[in-house]
Amino acid sequence: MSLVGLILIGLGLSLGATIIDVPSAIITLGGAFALLLVSGANIGAMFKGVFSSAATAEERRAGARGWELCGIYALIAGAIGTLIGLVIMLKNMDDPAAIGPGMALSMLTSFYGFVLAFLISMPLRKKLTAAA
């Protein structure tokens, strides 16, 4: 049901290409995934707990912990992307036309971090915690 709500919100915004930025998504999603790998989170249990009805209670607990870490790491990756965007923006202060891409990277990485943390990771973590 939460996925349907997310889709309806996305359709209702009608922003389309305005909020889609590949470099921002790579920084945020790639950064969060890389931090999950480095931390040793059980990524398999994260997805098995959500998508499989045969997941054990231990797998659901490990999955819930993984989604909790994913939310934290998404916020961290979003903050790092914001700093990168600000550096790009400040580097181009002499050319007003070049400030926009840095600002877009800065704002969209924060946005993607919040979306991943609060609209994806948190509901999945709560779902797995309730099921475990």
What's the quick description here?
With 132 residues, the chain is an all-alpha fold. Helix content is 81%, strand content 0%. The protein has 5 helices and no strands.
Q: What oligomeric arrangement do these chains adopt?
A: single chain
Instruction: List low-confidence stretches.
Output: none
The ordered H/E elements are HHHHH
Shape: elongated
What is the structural class?
A: mainly alpha
Separate helix tally? 5
Strand fraction: under 5%
Percentage of residues in helical conformation: over 70%
Find the count of extended strands (DSSP E, 2+ residues).
Answer: 0
Note the main sheet.
Answer: none
Rg from alpha-carbon coordinates? 17 Å
Instruction: State the end-to-end distance.
Output: 19 Å
Mean pLDDT: 88
Note down, in words, how this protein is organized.
The protein has about 130 residues and is mainly α. The chain is about 80% helix and about 0% strand. The protein is built from five helices and no strands. Helix 3 packs across helix 4 and helix 4 runs antiparallel to helix 5 (about 100-130). It is elongated.
Task: Set down the secondary structure blueprint.
Elements: H1 2-13, H2 22-39, H3 43-51, H4 57-91, H5 99-131
Helix pairs in contact: 2-4, 2-5, 3-4, 4-5
